[in-house]
Amino acid sequence: MRLLLVSTSYPADAEDWKGRFIADMVAALAARAGLDVTLWAPPGVLPARVRSVATPGDQAWLARLLAQGGIAAQLRRGGLAGLAATGGLLARLHRAYRRGSHDIVHVNWLQNALPLWGSRTPALVTVLGSDYGLLGRPGMRAALRAVFAQRPTILAPNAAWMVPRLAADFGNVARIRPVPFGVARTWFEVDRSGVEAGCWIAVTRLTRGKVGDLFEWGDGLFGSDRQLHLFGPMQERLTLPAWVNWHGPTHPADLRAHWFPRAAGLITLSRHDEGRPQVLLEAMAAGLPVVASDLPAHRDCIRHGETGWLVGRRDDLAAALAGLSDMAGNRRIGAAARDWVKREVGDWDDCAARYAALYAELEARG
């Protein structure tokens, strides 16, 4: 089966944090027998069996787009720059979809499906939480419905909580099949025997939506005895409190080797449109308790008081930090979180098997 996989994000090298989950997805799909995988994405190191079909011009353009925060950041900014970026992306994808020959197209992010217009190739479209903001734009739902109606289409959100909205908007022109992303096996191997009770971490892009209430609620809860270490790129101009230890962008190997083994837990108080945050799953797989804002995306994988802690106000955050300072309880919740990820999510090979079954369904219908 000839598969074209499309993504506007891909890590440039082993230390790049951008699009790491796409690299894991591509590697797992490439390892499956019977799949001939080609990739349209920014430049990066590819598995041996994967060929890039992005032209040098496409790759250079995508690399510049990533350096500016990606297409989602351009859409948020709006204006002429946002329109130019959107138009450039759609035009390049339109040409890419019509080059070569492929049996199935696997599209990551809804906006990247729009240039399929006019073709008949069966498509699987991965839907993430950030796509929900796109659906609110005028005409977007109608345009996507028209594209999906032209071919056998499966929408594959990475979390089940997204299914009702997608079914209501597209259920009569596409099949909805939730497919959770996998977790690299190395996360399950993290050794937390050296946990430091006063070390907490947050891993997030620094935007107002992603940071959420962290700085307001954390004031007075963190300091010299209980430290917060923040990792992620500054994508909006934010003022960081003096008690925040900001380390800038990071990459999974650094988190896995140096921070997850010592951290008492991970905090995410995002108010952003989340699907099922990959760093949250990786932390749970590593046995870290997660303290998260009470969003559908977080409720989808955290059982309050069992596999993590959901908070809706500052007092909840204070109670979570105090409760998880008891290392016996901390390790119990971390172990339950790891077991849940093993059972309900699995690794990337499990995810690739789920996708392969859907490709076969599309091929049969096509």
Please provide a written account of the structure.
It is a single chain. By secondary structure, the protein is α/β, with parallel strands linked by helices. It folds into two domains: 2-182 and 347-365, Glycogen Phosphorylase B (Rossmann fold, 3-Layer(aba) Sandwich), CATH 3.40.50.2000; 185-344, 3-Layer(aba) Sandwich (Rossmann fold), CATH 3.40.50. The chain is 41% helix and 14% strand. Strand 1 (2-6), helix 1 and strand 2 form a beta-alpha-beta unit. The two termini are 13 Å apart.
Major pleated sheet: 7 strands, parallel
Provide the CATH top-level class of the largest domain.
Alpha Beta
Uncertain regions spanning at least 5 consecutive residues: none
Q: Which percent range describes the beta-strand content?
A: 5-15%
**Widest sheet, order of strands:** 3-2-1-4-5-6-7
Which structural class do you get from the secondary structure elements? alpha/beta
How many structural domains? 2
Please give the alpha-carbon distance between the first and last residues.
13 Å
* Rg (CA only): 20 Å
Fourth-level CATH superfamily of the largest domain:
Glycogen Phosphorylase B
User: Overall mean pLDDT score?
Assistant: 93
Q: What is the CATH architecture term of the largest domain?
A: 3-Layer(aba) Sandwich
- Shape annotation: globular
Treating each run of at least 4 consecutive H or I residues as one helix, how many helices?
Answer: 15
Q: Tell how many strands the DSSP assignment holds.
A: 13
Elements, N to C (H/E) = EHEEHHHEEHHEHEEHHEEHEHEHEHHH
CATH topology term of the largest domain = Rossmann fold
Helix content: 40-55%
